[in-house]
Design goal:
heterodimer; A: 3 helices; B: 463 residues; alpha/beta; Amidase signature (AS) enzymes; 15 helices; 39% helix
């Protein structure tokens, strides 16, 4: 993630103040998020549902 | 009788109920010890000494009148400072909430009071249970009673340090990525992350809704079961709470492990993350000892720790961002640097990646469930090395993630960490026992077998 994209995403998230005062922390946070996403083998089967499942009420 | 500060909760409760021990005498002894030693350990953010002494006097008066509130009558307990205690600030160890006074007890605190326990005060944590150990917060970080130059683990750092130091026999911690089990490992005590949904989270400041657990921290396994007996059970006001009665958790402790099948997950500490040789040797010793007691120990493989950790972190940072975004936008300077960096990561996780992590989580749960078709308990590493020096930020940053705990927050299985031995430099080493959903009692049973075989709890040289 390049600096321009980080700044764009940070502003879209409302982090202008953090970007101005703690730019290194914003960059570190973005790098951390990118690293994590790149580590996971996200399911490709469309039938693989997320956890926890939606439940309507407590009983049938 | 054992020195009062090393008295277990069960022993203390029995002695109090039999009128052999005054709750006031016990409280005074602990307060004296805390006053003398805690300035070196910083376990407490807020010690509520006067209220605790008043409660001890009330407990004594009730005894004199023939009334016992419950199984913890007159027993002191420490509470992690992200858990609400009515009338006391819940600061989350942060400038953000430094004046946030709780209006009501968390459900777990309410249950403790109902059982007769006495709240001693609020305990240090990593900021919002994620940012620490840090020196840029309104309170100093807790230190390790085995060597105060080392960290005590976290985020339930004051809970771990205080139990190990003999400040209180019981503490509550919380565990989103290992935060009960990390301090239990670093401080040589017993920390259980119960099955997700077994213990109410109402009144606990959230870090990650689908990963957060409240757990008991104690010096002995029996005390851990005793505390779990009190705090477990359905709470209709907690959306994640499991319905139905919780049952008891101490009824299997004396059964032995002759009929248990134990899966030893060596991959975690041998290939996923190569552990310190002392940690690996201690784990082998635990496995041998349990086999000598009749358990059938066999190897088990699971998905890699690296991917479990990434799934945990994507979910955690996404859910935490939804809590912290308003403050991170308006008051970023009121967070410590570690929290700021870790919590802002959630702003950079896409919605697709969050849902993708939750979908991958379901597959990971299935893999662990599959392992439990052939074994009753998983045995694995907790921390891959003893606690690093608290002021060596690089060493802490390198070693903190080297653990095998976060995967059981992802799956929700009950997981207990305890001491497996001592390192050459006198710091606790650790082991972890994991069980099937809602078979927390079996986890405690396996832990009891190891505790008894290894000679029981060890105390740090802190006096």
């Amino acid at each position: 993630m390049d600096r321009t994209l980080i700044e764009t995403l940070a502003r879209a998230a409302g982090l202008e103040k953090a970007l101005a005062e703690y730019p290194d922390d914003v960059a570190a946070a973005a790098a951390q998020a990118q690293l994590q996403a790149g580590t996971v083998a996200f399911p490709i089967d469309p039938a693989a549902e997320p956890w926890p499942p939606m439940r309507a009420g407590d009983r049938l | 009788m054992t020195e009062l500060h090393w008295l277990g909760a069960g022993e203390a409760a029995r002695a109090i109920a039999a009128r052999q021990l005054s709750p006031v005498e016990l409280m005074q002894a602990l307060l004296e010890r805390i006053g003398r030693i805690d300035p070196r350990l910083n376990a407490f953010i807020r010690l509520d000494a006067d209220a605790a002494l008043d409660a001890a006097r009330a407990a004594e008066a009730e005894l004199a009148a023939g009334r016992i509130r419950g199984p913890l009558h007159g027993v002191p307990v420490g509470i992690k400072d992200i858990i609400d205690v009515a009338g006391l600030p819940t600061t989350c160890h942060s400038k953000i909430l430094v004046e946030n006074v709780a209006r009501a007890d968390a459900e777990v605190v309410s249950r403790l009071r109902g059982a007769g326990a006495i709240v001693l005060g609020k305990l240090s944590t990593h900021e919002f249970a994620i940012g620490g150990p840090s020196f840029d917060l309104p309170f100093p970080p807790a230190r390790n009673p085995w060597n105060r130059d080392h960290h005590p683990g976290g985020s339930s750092s004051g809970s771990g340090a205080g139990v190990a130091a003999g400040f209180f026999p019981l503490a509550l911690g919380t565990d989103t990525g290992g935060s009960v089990r990390n301090p239990a490992s670093a401080c040589g005590i017993v920390g259980l992350k119960p099955t997700y949904g077994l213990v109410s989270r109402r009144g606990v400041f959230p870090l990650s809704y689908t990963l957060d657990h409240v757990g008991p921290m104690t010096r002995t396994v029996a005390d851990n079961a005793l505390l779990l007996n009190v705090i477990a059970g359905h709470d209709a006001a907690d959306p994640g709470s499991a319905p139905g009665p919780a049952g008891s958790f101490d009824h299997l402790l004396d059964l032995g492990i002759g009929d248990l099948r134990i899966g030893f997950v060596r991959q975690f500490h041998e290939t996923d993350l190569v552990a310190d040789p002392e940690v690996a040797a201690a784990l082998e010793q635990v496995a041998r000892t349990l086999a000598e007691q009749g358990a059938r120990v066999r190897p088990v493989a699971l998905p890699s720790l690296t991917e479990f950790a990434a799934v945990n972190r994507i979910i955690l940072t996404s859910e935490a961002w939804s809590v912290h975004a308003p403050w991170l936008r308006e008051r970023p300077g009121d967070y410590g640097q570690l929290s700021r960096r870790r919590l802002m990561a959630g702003a950079f996780v896409s919605a697709g990646d969050y849902v993708g992590a939750q979908r991958r989580r379901k597959e990971m749960i299935a893999a662990v469930q599959d392992a439990f078709r052939d074994v009753d308990i998983l045995l694995c590493a907790s921390s891959m090395e003893p606690a690093s020096a608290i002021e060596d930020a690089d060493a802490t940053a390198r070693t903190y993630p080297r653990q095998a705990r976060t995967l059981f927050n992802v799956t929700g299985h009950p997981a207990l960490a305890m001491m497996s031995g001592l390192s050459r430099n006198g710091l606790p080493l650790s082991v972890q026992f994991v069980g099937r959903y809602f078979e927390d009692a079996t986890v405690l049973r396996a832990a009891t077998a190891w505790e008894r075989a290894s000679g029981g709890p060890k105390h740090p040289p802190i006096d």
